[in-house]
Design brief:
Layout (H helix, E strand, L loop, with lengths): L2 E3 L4 H11 L6 E3 L16 H16 L3 E10 L20 H11 L9 E12 L2 E13 L15 E3 L4 E2 H4 L1 H7 L1 H16 L1
The chain binds inosine 5'-triphosphate (ITT).
The site of inosine 5'-triphosphate has 20 residues, from strand 3.
């Protein structure tokens, strides 16, 4: 069954398809079949933003559509960048510069106080139905940027059970434990139970 996702982040879409492959579900970027539209992500929660994206995709395609909103919550920064993870430091900063800025903000913070959590909320919108799924992955912010796999904040996020960053661990391990894997496995179970 065709499931769209309204997302401009190719790293996300690739990861989601890898996570869903054991379930024989694949998602397709809405932008492949429809002309891009701007969704203003001005919700006050991840769920609101995920719903804004999924509803917009459903309205345009009249087909089942996913919206995903995710972020990195750093305790020593009172939960920042959190909901503003994509926009942290302004639209002009690239991921490398964002990571550098976070490491700079945390430079006096000792390892035991560098706890953080990746959050992923998925909204699924279809005819007469809206569902939300959530995944969280706790960890720590590394002292420096390490590894080259993945995207975004992966080079500075340490998975405690491996003591390595997601970017060092690579996609296989990330996709076993990540916030996105937890949320999308629930979505897959739901979709399969509905089919
Ligand atoms: P769409 O809204 O178009 O889907 P986006 O990148 O703007 O793409 P979000 O609004 O959900 O997505 O922003 C989430 C940001 O949080 C994302 O840009 C990354 O910087 C970061 N992020 C989320 N999940 C991540 C992960 O698994 N690894 C690294 N960074 C992640």
């Amino acid at each position: 069954r065709l499931v769209y996702i309204l997302s401009k982040n190719p790293g996300k879409i690739k990861e989601i398809n890898t996570i869903l492959s054991p379930y024989s579900i694949s998602i397709r970027s809405l932008y492949q079949d429809y002309s891009p539209m701007e969704v203003v992500e001005n919700g006050s929660s991840y769920a609101e933003n995920a719903l804004l994206k999924a509803r917009c995709g459903f309205e345009i395609s009249r087909n089942l559509c996913i919206g995903e909103d995710s972020g990195l919550e750093i305790d020593a920064l009172d939960g920042a960048p959190g909901l503003f993870s994509a926009r942290f430091g302004g639209e002009t900063l690239n991921p490398k510069e964002k990571n550098k800025q976070i490491l700079e903000l945390l430079k006096e913070v000792p390892q035991e106080k560098r706890s953080a959590c990746f959050v992923c909320i998925v909204a699924l919108v279809g005819e007469n139905s809206e569902k939300i799924f959530e995944g969280r992955c706790p960890g720590f912010i590394s002292p420096e940027s390490r590894g080259s796999s993945g995207f975004g904040y992966d080079p500075i996020f340490i998975l405690p059970s491996y003591q390595k960053t997601f970017a060092e661990l690579g996609e296989n391990i990330k996709n076993r434990f990540s916030h996105r894997a937890i949320a999308f496995r629930q979505l897959a179970e739901y979709l399969l139970s509905e089919m």
